[in-house]
Amino acid sequence: MVEVEVVKYTSNVLEVRVRGEGHTLLNLFVDELNSMKGVTAAYRVEHPLLGVASLLVRTENGVDPLEALREAEGRIREKLEDFKKQVREQL
Fold first, then answer.
1. How confident is the model over 5-45, as pLDDT tens digits?
2. CATH number of the domain that residue 84 is part of
3. CA-based nearest residue to 43, from 27, 59, 58, 32
4. Domain that holds residue 76
5. Which of 4, 42, 43, 71 is deepest in the core (most CB within 10 A)?
C-alpha cells in the first residue's frame, strides 16, 4: 500500500514523501513532470530497504505544483490505457 505525505506545499514547490514505492512509480512521474513547460521534478529514495522516497516538484510562471502533479497523473493514466489497448490488440 502506498502512503503519501505532503512535506511542503507553496505556490511553486511541492514536496511529498512516498512510502511503499520507489524508482518505478516516481521515475514515471518525474519523466512526465519534466516534459511539462515550467515544471522541474526530481526524486530520491532514502534507502532501498526502507521503502521511503521523496518527490520534489518546482514550478515557475504561475504553474501550481499540485496541479502539475495532477496533470502528470492524468497523462500517465492515458498512456497506460493506450498501452493496455495495444497489448490487447496483439493478443
1. 999 999 999 999 999 888 889 999 999 999 999 999 999 99
2. 3.30.1360.10
3. 27
4. 3-90
5. 43
